[in-house]
């Protein structure tokens, strides 16, 4: 089993920045690809960013590319999502997830474990 706990969410004004963290306990963190997804009120959950087990490969949704950066520290069992130039459309609950096989990093169905989420609210 893998337990994931997100932190770092909060309220910020448009143009601001936040850094989300997701810490893993349980199985070896470095065995898993990691991803961030988000779900806005009334909308389906969508892919945001993913990173390979080594950190050598990353993937981003078009709507966050150039603004968000995913990274990981395997020594700390933690994955990060640095979010810059936030806008109100980024308001959502953000979830991290762990993917053992990592065959389709952008696909929700590929992920094996999920955190409980952390809320991000961006005001205009």
Task: Give your account of this protein's structure.
The structure is a single chain. By secondary structure, the protein is mainly β. It has no helices and eleven strands. Strands 2, 4, 5, 6, 9, 10 and 11 form a seven-stranded mixed beta sheet that branches. Strand 5 and strand 6 (58-60) form a beta hairpin. The protein is globular, with a radius of gyration of 13 Å.
**Rg result:** 13 Å
Q: Structural class, from secondary structure content?
A: mainly beta
User: Would you report the number of β strands?
Assistant: 11
Can you give the mean pLDDT?
Answer: 95
Poorly predicted parts: none
Proportion in β-strands: over 45%
> What spatial form do the alpha-carbon principal axes imply?
globular
SSE series: EEEEEEEEEEE
Biggest sheet architecture: 7 strands, mixed
Please, how many helices? 0
N-end to C-end Cα span: 40 Å
Helical proportion, percent range: under 10%
What's this model, at a glance?
This protein is mainly β. The chain is 0% helix and 51% strand. The protein has no helices and eleven strands.
Secondary structure elements and their pairing?
Layout: E1 2-7, E2 10-13, E3 18-26, E4 33-39, E5 46-51, E6 58-60, E7 68-73, E8 78-83, E9 92-99, E10 113-114, E11 118-123
Parallel strand pairs: 2-11
Antiparallel strand pairs: 1-3, 3-8, 4-5, 4-9, 5-6, 7-8, 9-10, 9-11
